[in-house]
Amino acid sequence: MRRPIVAGNWKMNLTAKEASLLIENLLSGLKENTETGLMEIVVCPAFTALQTVAEKTKDTEIVLGAQNMHWERSGAYTGEVSPAMLVDLGCKYVIIGHSERRQYFAETDEVVNKKVKAALASNLGPIMCVGESLEERESDLTEKVIREQLLGGLKGIQSEDFENVVVAYEPVWAIGSGKAATAEDAEKVALLIRNILRELAGEVSERVRIQYGGSVKASNIGSFMAQPNIDGALVGGASLEGKGFAELIGNAK
Ligand code: 13P
After folding, report:
1. What is the pLDDT of residue 1?
2. Alpha carbon of 76 to ligand 1 centroid (Å)
3. Cβ(112) to ligand 1 under 6 A?
């Protein structure tokens, strides 16, 4: 039984004050929805709001995650944040290799791999993102791209560590476009991901949680959650408003 996980990726949005207000609205929304049950709820604010959100979510069902990190513990890396710093603030998860980082900050599978290893070594759960671009999908390269990203990103990871990794399937063309993948197409790739994980690590692949991300909203989350290999969602835009995100989470049950 895999515990469902819905995570909000706030990207470069919200000051600490705005984040604080969002958490208040999210908590009151969740109370109205009650019964979020087994669901794990994660929010990933910008670094500058982590401390505030950590305080606001203390002793609540909301878990803290970050959007990125460096792989070294400390050192001369101006502008970077280390795994130990995130743990110190109470983070339990960290998004690694989001397509925006791959696209705008030249993150390669090799960099993703270093970060995934560093996260695991610090007891942070990496939410490792994979996904094909529109051009790749139209050229029938989806399977090849997903395979390369998984093999590269998870290289050298011990089988027993796999269950601490969350894989987020985010087709690049579905991110922020309002055009989500169909639940059937997302399931096809989620199954492909699980099969590749099985090749890499064996039976533990059954315990790896796979999220879908890309234009997830309150109205379509249910169709993704109904798929056998989709265990949650990574949500961008629809996580930026507390009540709305609470409704989405309520519909994810
Ligand atoms: P949207 O939900 O805004 O499409 O963003 C998805 C995403 O990139 C989450 O990481």
Report:
1. 85
2. 32
3. no
User: Residue 175 Cα, ligand 1 centroid: separation in angstroms?
Assistant: 5
- What pLDDT digit, counting tens, does each position of 97-127 carry? 999 999 999 999 999 999 999 999 999 999 9
Whether 70 is catalytic is no
| Residue 241 among the catalytic residues | no
Residue 198 corresponds to which tokens in the numbers above? 């099985």
Between the CA of residue 143 and those of 130, 156, 189, 228, 245, what are the distances in Å? 11, 21, 8, 19, 31
232: left (phi over 0), alpha (psi -120 to 50) or beta: left
Ligand 1 pocket mutation, candidates 5, 6, 10, 11, criterion most atoms within 8 A of CB: 11
Is any atom of ligand 1 closer than 6 Å to the C-beta of 250?
Answer: no
Indicate whether residue 235 lines ligand 1 (CB < 6 A).
Answer: yes
For the chain, how many structural domains are there in total?
1
Rounded Cα distance between 145 and 114, Å, is: 19
**Predicted pLDDT at 35:** 66
Look up the CATH number of the domain holding residue 137: 3.20.20.70
**Sign (positive or negative) of CA dihedral 64, 1, 120, 210:** negative
* Across 33-43, average pLDDT: 82
Predicted pLDDT at 30: 94
What is the number of the ligand 1 atom nearest to the C-alpha of 168?
10
Decide if pLDDT at 38 tops 90.
no
Q: Which residue range(s) make up the domain with 226? A: 5-251
Instruction: With 0.90 as the threshold, say if the pTM is over it.
Output: yes
